[in-house]
Amino acid sequence: xxxATYNVNGVNGRLPVLLRWLxxxxxxxVCLQExxxxxxxxxxxxxxxxxxxxxxxxxxxxxxxxxxxxAGTIHETRRGLPGDPDDTHSRxxxxxxxxxxxxxxxxxxxxxRPGPKFDYKLNWFDRLIDHAAGLIExxxxxxxxxxxxxxxxxxxxxxxxxxxxxxxxxxxxxAAYFRLLDQGWTDALRTLHPDETIYTFWDYFRNAYARNAGxxxxxxxxxPALTKRLVRAEVDSFVRGWEKTSDHAPVWIELSDKPVRRxxxxxxxxxxxxxx
Length: 276
Fold this sequence. Notes:
By secondary structure, the protein is α+β, with helices and mostly antiparallel strands. It has one domain (2-271): Deoxyribonuclease I, Chain A (4-Layer Sandwich), CATH 3.60.10.10. It contains eight helices and 14 strands. It has helices at residues 15-25, 44-49, 116-138, 171-181, 188-192, 208-211, 224-227, 266-271, and strands at 2-7, 29-33, 53-57, 65-69, 74-79, 92-97, 100-106, 142-147, 186-187, 201-202, 214-215, 218-222, 230-235, 251-255. Strands 3-4-2-1-14-13 form a six-stranded mixed β-sheet. The chain has a six-stranded mixed β-sheet with strand order 5-6-7-8-12-9. Strand 3 and strand 4 (65-69) form a beta hairpin. The radius of gyration is 17 Å and the shape is globular. Mean pLDDT is 94; it is low at 266-276.
């Protein structure tokens, strides 16, 4: 089974790109972020014609998350994170699909730092960590997938010295990411590519994609029940080179039907404890 996450940066404006990618790569389950569309403008019919059912949590002009599936019925289990009844941002949707619980998320950007947006980011991250703890304790096969807006280590950002004051690279945010991992989650992409320069986002400015001046901010985190089934993790970076495309590229994993034995890589193990 192939499960992907993709920040589409406007699901209607970039619908041709999304449909082209779905047709060419045929992922089974997809988490989308930054729909930038209210619920009534989500392109359900076009996606259904492409073979995908969907649940979505939209918002006018900003945010918005969705889960697509061609691998079975989507049973929505949660819309929004617990912990703040006044939070109106559409940033989290959760559903059971084909025996796996999927949490699709769009973590706040947090800039400028310091300020109220950064405080909101940290508070939202704390709420995610609290909710994720319960998911881990359940023992269920769970994936948290989406745009986390955090580069965990210096390996995940081009010229990290330029990002020291940015909310995506702030020590507090990176520490929160590792607090999440310490619950027992596996960073799928970094586990299978422990030493590679690998990015998921390239800015539209300064020819960033051509120079490979990117960031790794889109992640798929696996609970222990799924870590044993991980066989591949890749970035479809070529999609970032298409016309009128998002500034993110799709990231995907493949899971086997049964647990697989994989040699332990020292660098991958070290990554989980590198906090700088």
